[in-house]
Amino acid sequence: MTKDQLLEFIVNLIEEYPDIANRIEEKEDLKSGRAHKIVRSIRAEIEQLSSEPAWQNHWSGEGNIPDYSHIRTRLESLLSSGHADEVLELGKDLWDLGNEQMESSDDEGETGEQIAECMKVIFGALEKSTLASPEQILWMIETFLEDEFGILDDPKDYFDDNQYDDNAWSEVANTLLNRLGNLPVSNKSETFHGDYKRRHIVDWAITALELSGRKQEIVPLLKREAPITQCYVLLIERLLEAGMRVEAKATAVEGFQLTIDKAPGIAWQLEDKLRKMAEEDKELSMVAAYRAMEFFNHPSLESYKNLEKAAEAVHAWPIVKGTAMTFLQTGVRPDVKAKNGKDKAVCRDIKLWPLPNPEISIEHKASRYQQFPDVSPLIAISIYEKDSHEVLRWYAIAKKTPYLGSSFDTQVAEAVKNSHPDESLKIWWKLAENQINLVKTSAYEVAAM
């Protein structure tokens, strides 16, 4: 093409695709050092796009998902032209406004995914910026601390190359430790929920201490923070790594008693640690005692099997099994103290219980969510032990319990089909009728099956 032909060709392209004109103009502005004009334009685009409502109707497919791909392309172009500081400046705006948009969005996470893709460009600008190494690390840490929706990749993906030296990480560690020292203890910690953000600062402080070669400061930090953020599990793991087994066990016992009422999830993680330590120490009776504790507090087929295996290892299964089944039928258990004389929480004769007391204790509290006989695990256990008569016995009671509904119909019908074919047939017949009554093609297919 001649020069005139090329010009005509480009002008025609620009008229059809205006973005081409913008890209050409931006490249010329960057070459001429007029980056401020582009920064202003990108910021305006971020403000406009982040103000759009983000929503998606899963059923109809309708919706509006803001498209951040153009912003990402412009940020990449700005970064490749050597304007890393400007990219970071825009990244802060994008992150703040994007989080506000995600907070009010009603989509399946698509908006967050697009913002996260833009943030990869922002993080790529850090190393090329004029910020000192510790400031670069802290910039990224602060961004992750503000990631309430969990849209960013694993932080390790950005630090695997370990592009920062020990001194930089040590300075970051000092900053984070000082920040923790100045943070007021939230009143929420009194209810054992702790401060979510504080816990993440602790996690980052541990990372910084490790990468700066100051690992010896991690356990003292966790000891200070455990009563505030309930990081007992992490503390125990670190104590075990350091060979401080006795202290790890004592910490688990103390942590369990402090968290069982208001943070039971943490408490049962600590119980799991204690049981595993007993397994490692070959204390088989104590392992069985912990399995019994798990079963009495969370009765299920899985906890029953775990208890069976542990009790058989110490030749105590017959007695333990009898007590376990009595508990499922009556609520009477041997491993807790009654709160008062009227409480039925004590076994018939606690002297007959063959297992030792665990190193932790739990006070019996009647739950309105648990009723006896506890037919759900009773049916599951009866099926597991192939006791058809007991399966049908507990199933008959379950059918009178509204909240169980038809959850066991299929399992029971399958379990008793050989021993009680008539009963099995009744269940299948009823299930087929229920499907037919829905008067839908798909329901007929299920009924026929």
Folded structure, characterized:
The protein is flat. It has 449 residues and is an all-alpha fold. It has 22 helices and two strands. It has a two-stranded antiparallel ribbon. Helices cover 65% and strands 1% of the residues. Among the domains are: 88 residues, no CATH class; 74 residues, no CATH class.
Uncertain residue ranges: 189-194, 344-348
Strand coverage percent: under 5%
Task: Kindly report the average pLDDT value.
Answer: 90
Cα-to-Cα separation, first versus last residue: 71 Å
Order of helices and strands: HHHEEHHHHHHHHHHHHHHHHHHH
Describe the global form: flat
Q: What is the count of helical runs?
A: 22
As laid out across the biggest beta sheet, the strand order is: 1-2
Structure class: mainly alpha
Q: Give a count of the beta strands, DSSP E runs of length 2 or more.
A: 2
Largest sheet: 2 strands, antiparallel
Report helical residue fraction: 55-70%
Rounded radius of gyration (Å): 32 Å
